[in-house]
Specification:
19% strand, elongated, 3 helices, alpha+beta, 130 residues
Length: 130
């Protein structure tokens, strides 16, 4: 049982560490619209670029996040970003990007939970035998 404990522990630690390398911030751009900054990030698990922003007329506790059509398609104005996403809003691209992101998150969460339960179970079994 000691071998099983070590395997589950290594898998759990690997999954936990991998979560720190999922996102990277590419750049933050101040726009011509007062108070709006566009922060470009990259989700390395699904290979999708995202932009985070808070609209000028909103009070944001958490920024809005929308996927970019292409990683190089960065906008320097809030209005250009809104126009770009209104073009692709009906195509299903935005929904598909969110589905991929959520699926990657759910798979990671389930694998981490299962491996952590495996750590607890094998540790408990190992200590009971002694």
């Amino acid at each position: 049982m000691k071998r099983g404990f070590i395997i589950f522990l290594l898998v759990t630690i690997t999954l936990m560490i991998s979560s720190f390398f999922r996102w990277s911030e590419l750049e933050t751009i101040s726009t011509s619209t007062p108070g709006v900054e566009l922060t470009y990030t990259k989700d390395h698990w699904v290979g999708q670029a995202w932009v985070e922003y808070c609209p000028p007329s909103a009070i944001c506790k958490k920024n809005y996040e929308v996927p970019l059509v292409t990683e190089t398609n960065r906008h320097h104005s809030f209005e250009a970003l809104i126009q770009e996403h209104s073009k692709h809003g009906q195509s299903g691209f935005l929904v598909e990007a969110w589905r991929k992101r959520d699926l990657a998150t759910y798979i990671w969460l389930n694998l981490t939970t299962i491996s952590f339960i495996g750590v607890l179970y094998t540790f408990r079994s190992y200590t009971r035998r002694k």
